[in-house]
Amino acid sequence: MTHIPFGTATADQWAVEITPASAGWTYSGLRVADNPVAFETGGEEMLVLPLSGSFDVVADGRTFTLHGRESVFTAVSDFLYLPIGTSVTITGSGRVALPSARASRRLPIRYGPAADVPVEVRGAGQASRQINNFCAPGVFDCDRLMAVEVLTPEGNWSSYPPHKHDEQHEGEAVLEEIYYFEGGPGYQRVYGSHEVLAEVSAGDVVLVPRGYHGPSMAAPGYDLYYLNVLAGPADERSMAFCDDPRHAWIRESWAGQAVDPRVPMTEAAR
């Protein structure tokens, strides 16, 4: 199943649990918790990302406090990196996401302050959106895991023009991608290898094993957030993609349009 409505991927202590096995692929995963959790990372590297609320994380006996945020629409959050083979307990109040990827290198546990998260404004006009590049290549080191947050003001389109990353060549990387949503309702399109046009809202997930994906459409009156989790087989992390050639001209059109003044929508809490 490519569109996974909230409440249909629960498992044990997790409100959402997407593993490589359940997704039918090899690398990318995601867990979301609304309650305290204790677990082992096993063969996956993970991030602890507050979606709402604040959390204390004990990882291999070390304690870290994540100050978090009221919601994904109020601030950029701090986060924590968890390597493979780590014992973890998370306590606090709110909702926390754990993007993950199967990994082979054990990197150190690291805290990522919100103030260091690069906030990018992409697109123009009704394709204006905010990207929080907290775990993008070149920003934060992981073995295979990549993750970014995207905020789309109501009525705008993001993940646009539609693009794909399912072939390995210069300018494109092979990646398994997860979209996890908050806010909405909105709509998500996937096509090319399989067809999806799904209404999405808080807690929903869309899996993209291959094919073009986009646009992500925020319905008028409703801002849309999604967390992208990506990982693939290449030794070097890359989020390179290839636009649908029918719609690639859209990027050139942005040069003549003003950026929507509603973005950026958030920044690091002061």
Helix content: under 10%
Secondary structural class: mainly beta
How many strands, which pairing sense, and closed or not: the largest β-sheet? 8 strands, antiparallel
Number of contiguous helices: 2
Overall CATH architecture: Sandwich
Give the beta-strand count. 21
- 3D shape: globular
Low-confidence stretches: none
Strand content: over 45%
Identify the CATH homologous superfamily: Jelly Rolls
**Overall domain count:** 1
Q: Span between N and C termini?
A: 41 Å
CATH topology: Jelly Rolls
CATH class, named Mainly Beta
Integer-rounded radius of gyration? 17 Å
Q: What is the string of SSEs from the N terminus onward?
A: EEHEEEEEEEEEEEEEEEEEEEH
Mean pLDDT: 97
Key features of this structure:
single chain; 270 residues; mainly beta; Jelly Rolls; eight-stranded antiparallel sheet; globular
Summarize the structure.
This protein has 270 residues and is mostly beta strands.
Please characterize this protein's 3D structure.
It is a single chain. The chain has helices spanning about 20-25, 250-255; strands at about 5, 15-20, 30-35, 35-40, 45-60, 60-70, 80, 85-100, 110, 120, 130-135, 145-150, 155-160, 165, 175-185, 185-190, 195-200, 205-210, 210-220, 225-230, 240-245. It is mainly beta and about 270 residues long. It has one domain (about 5-250): Jelly Rolls, CATH 2.60.120. The strands form four sheets. Strands 2, 3, 4, 5, 6, 7, 8 and 9 form an eight-stranded antiparallel β-sheet that branches. It is globular, with a radius of gyration of 17 Å.
